[in-house]
Design a protein that fits this description.
Bound molecules: adenosine-5'-diphosphate, magnesium ion
Family: Belongs to the helicase family. RecG subfamily.
Number of domains: 4
CATH class of the largest domain: Alpha Beta
Oligomer: single chain
Mean pLDDT: 87
Protein name: ATP-dependent DNA helicase RecG
EC number: 5.6.2.4
Organism: marine gamma proteobacterium HTCC2143
CATH superfamily of the largest domain: P-loop containing nucleotide triphosphate hydrolases
Catalytic activity: Couples ATP hydrolysis with the unwinding of duplex DNA by translocating in the 3'-5' direction; ATP + H2O = ADP + phosphate + H(+)
């Protein structure tokens, strides 16, 4: 497809009337540089200003256009000073109220002037009132035509009014002629039963929908034109990830051979055999790493499925081949646990372990950085701190990233910077315990190959789960007492709605005090995210050593903590957590030979959806089943975690609403990147504001 030289992606916004250097800067801040960018800055919703509503027919809570004569305009001195204007037509009277107003404004509202207003009527002190309506004076002898299309509302941003946006969009629309935008999707391709829709037509319609447009459908984002654009947007995101992948694969990576002798010794030392699933995934990793292209592999596996030992084997092979390995975890507590495990496993095999987290400071930090740069450590365990600029690896050959959903594409890009030019890109192994349904995974992780550990190690007893009203707290406390007396350790998890460490810690402290009072013979301890790492560590160690019976915790214990003797878990206000998160938490029990139980407490009354969700936890212990159901009930936001969805800054598409498009998007993206690569960059740049970042990698 050749590119006509007048396409709107080549026309700078400065060519529009009213766009000077200052406005251009503002627009650039929103990633809008060209007229095409402006056209793809789409309305969020629409207002219907196509008819005038008689004042007598105004309804509270509904936006409306009215026209009437000013009957009075006075300053009212109530609780707050306001300008109050009575407006009348032949059907009734309404009050316009302004809390912010100028003297000139009051002067202009003289009796007898006719105003046309737009606003939402509300019940106020004097009957129906409109607060701060948009208005202007009109000449009753020379009536103004009504709006001929629905009024678009743009994602607002400081410094540009809705009217400003509308003016710009209208100018851009006049430039939107046939062939001024390139159709990058294949002609033969269309979604659903609809005929292919031209971009020109879709954009014209969405910036300025006709009077008879189905407002409801547009509001829901389900109009065929919106769906068409949503499809293209999802495609652009998918392509950006595929491109990232291809770019990474262009770089070389050090081929790493399996070291059978050390593998034998490692497995022997573990004292158990790998499950078939672990063997399969380990072989997939070996195959990837033996290649001179970087591995890009995501390993999904339920909590406790044994991902860490599989990663350890990969780390061992890389270190034994003379490369460094970075092991990154999303939280301090999980990183600490990895540190303990890797030290225990690898030191006897002659490898040196380094440690770097945000909390490693001063002289100790300098020492660690030096050791990393000089290759006197082989395996370096840590948190995000490992990505920082000051960290220079001597020979990074493999990066293991645990709990992928908390890391983002940007961090994966940062990893590139850690490569040693002489040896090439590090292999990447990404592990997640949040099972993600296939289609969603194909979109969110389009740049990765996937392996699944779909089998738990033998000897695990299933966890039985019950759902109980918070009111029956005393019964639950009895149950905890019995369990602890029998020598079975227990977790009590406190949750809060607000994302606040402090409040959550406070709630856990209160609960801990109550439980200590109720259970005087039981050893109760508290752990939460606000504690010092050393404190957390010593509490976890004491719990592990069975010196604590009941551990009251916040959701910090979510990932990774391994105490096989703990076989009872109480989760307060379970309805507040996502199912995948509940599943993660519940995975802390059921790790030993005794039958384990999980009590999900909820605050009554619980809605139908809430009940259904907790029932799923009762019925299934399979992370994938739970994730699929959760996706069905609540959409992908929760599954992917806020960071991940935040990364996919979508303009018009919505992963929840548009999940039915994903399969086709995935297929087409793969076709296009191979068969029609010229379309890739233009599509990415059309849809992704910082698209250059992908284009340049
Ligand atoms: P994940 O990281 O997938 O949650 P881990 O690797 O931490 O799981 O394993 C959970 C527990 O199961 C650990 O105590 C680990 O030593 C043990 N484990 C892992 N694989 C096996 C296996 N094949 N047989 C028995 N125990 C295993
Ligand atoms: Mg783990």
């Amino acid at each position: 497809m050749s590119r006509p030289n007048s396409t709107l992606d080549q026309v700078n916004v400065r060519e529009l009337k009213g766009v000077g250097p200052k406005m251009a800067d503002k627009l650039a801040g929103l990633g809008i540089h060209t007229v095409q960018d402006l056209l793809f800055h789409l309305p969020l919703r629409y207002q219907d200003r196509t008819r005038i509503t008689p004042i007598g027919a105004l309804q509270p809570g509904i936006d409306a256009v009215i026209e009437g004569e000013v009957r009075a305009a006075d300053i009212a001195f109530g609780r707050r000073r306001s300008l109050v204007c009575r407006l009348q037509d032949h059907t009734g009277t309404v009050t316009l109220r302004f809390f912010h107003f100028s003297a000139a404004q009051k002067e202009n509202l003289t009796n007898g002037v006719t105003l046309r207003c737009f606003g939402e009527a509300r019940r106020g002190a004097s009957g129906l009132e409109m607060y701060h309506p948009e208005y202007h004076a009109v000449d009753p002898l020379n009536p103004e035509p009504n709006e001929q299309s629905l009024t678009p509302i743009y994602p607002s941003s400081e410094g540009l009014s809705q009217q400003g946006w509308r003016k710009l969009a209208l100018q851009a629309l006049t430039m939107l002629q046939p062939n001024t935008l390139i159709e990058w999707l294949p002609q033969s391709f269309n979604i659903g039963d609809t005929l292919p829709i031209s971009l020109e037509h879709a954009l014209q319609y969405l910036h300025s929908p006709p009077i008879d447009a189905p407002v409801e459908l547009l509001r829901e984002g389900k109009h065929a034109y919106q769906q068409q654009l949503a499809f293209e947007e999802l495609l652009a995101h998918n392509l950006s990830l595929l491109k990232l992948r291809n770019q990474t694969l262009k770089h070389g990576a050090p081929p790493i051979a399996k070291n059978s002798d050390l593998n034998q010794r490692f497995l022997h030392q573990l004292g158990f055999d790998f499950t078939r699933a672990q063997q399969r995934v380990a072989a997939e990793i070996d195959r990837d790493m033996s290649s001179a292209k970087p591995m890009l592999r995501l390993v999904q596996g339920d909590v406790g499925s044994g991902k860490t030992v599989v990663a350890a084997l990969a780390a061992l092979n890389a270190a034994a081949s003379g490369y460094q390995v970075a092991i990154m975890a999303p939280t301090e507590i999980l990183a600490e646990q990895h540190l303990a495990n890797f030290t225990r496993w690898m030191t006897p095999l002659g490898l040196d372990i380094g440690w770097l987290s945000g909390k490693v400071k001063g002289k100790q930090r300098q020492q660690q950085l030096k050791a990393i740069a000089e290759h006197s450590v082989d395996i370096i365990v840590g948190t995000h701190a490992l990505f920082q600029q000051e960290v220079v690896f001597a020979r990074l050959g493999l990066a293991v990233i645990d709990e992928q959903h908390r890391f983002g594409v940007h961090q994966r890009l940062a990893l590139k910077e850690k490569a040693n030019q002489d040896i090439g890109q590090p292999h990447q192994l990404i592990m997640t315990a949040t099972p993600i349904p296939r289609t969603l995974a194909m979109s969110a992780y389009a740049d990765l190959d996937t392996s699944v550990i779909d089998e738990l190690p033998p000897g695990r007893t299933p966890i039985s789960t019950v759902v109980i009203d918070n009111n029956r707290r005393s019964q639950i406390i009895d149950r905890v007492r019995n369990a602890c007396v029998e020598g079975r350790q227990t977790y009590w998890v406190c949750t809060l709605i607000e994302e606040s460490d402090t409040l959550e810690a406070q709630a856990a402290e209160d609960t801990c005090e109550q439980l200590k009072l109720a259970l005087p013979d039981i050893k109760v301890a508290l752990i939460h995210g606000r504690m010092k790492p050393s404190e957390k560590e010593s509490i976890m160690a004491a719990f592990k050593a069975n010196q604590i019976d009941l551990l009251v915790a916040t959701t910090v214990i979510e990932v990774g903590v391994d105490v096989p003797n703990a076989s009872l878990m109480i989760i307060e206000n379970a309805e507040r957590l996502g199912l995948s998160q509940l599943h993660q938490l519940r995975g802390r029990v059921g790790r030993g030979p005794t039958a384990s139980h999980c009590v999900l407490m909820y605050q009554a009354p619980l809605g139908k959806l809430g009940k259904q969700r907790l029932q799923i936890m009762r019925q299934s212990s399979d992370g994938f089943v739970i994730a699929e159901k959760d996706l069905e009930l609540r959409g992908p936001g929760e599954l992917l975690g806020t960071r991940q969805t935040g990364l996919m800054q979508l303009r018009i598409a919505n992963l929840e609403r548009d999940s039915h498009l994903l399969e086709a998007v995935n297929i087409l993206a793969r076709q296009m990147i191979n068969d029609h690569p010229v379309a890739v960059n233009p599509l990415i740049q059309r849809w992704i504001a910082d698209g250059e970042q992908y284009a340049q990698v």
